[in-house]
Amino acid sequence: xxxxxxxxxxxxxxxxxxxxxxxxxxxxxxxxxxxxxxxxxxxxxxxxxxxxxxxxxxxxxxxxxxxxxxxxxxxxxxxxxxxxxxxxxxxxxxxxxxxxxxxxxxxxxxxxxxxxxxxxxx
Length: 122
Known about the structure:
alpha/beta
């Protein structure tokens, strides 16, 4: 159908030389996919490993995504959150002007994080 929004969530992480670290991001993405069948959930990495941000955005565009919510998988608002990710999204907007991109707060900015940490305590 024309005019139907196809929503996607793109989790952006740093990327690591340690494969197990990257696998954690892939596993989180898989769990989100399992919880929401109507959402295209994917992940990408800013450095060191693939898929890159632009590679994954190209895939989302090819899959028909029209609304991409971008979640920075970071605890603090360092240079990746405040500079690199916004620059990646500006590039993506130029390459895919028909897609709406929304930058969500990074994980460390979520007010629920403090409650989650307290729930972890024995």
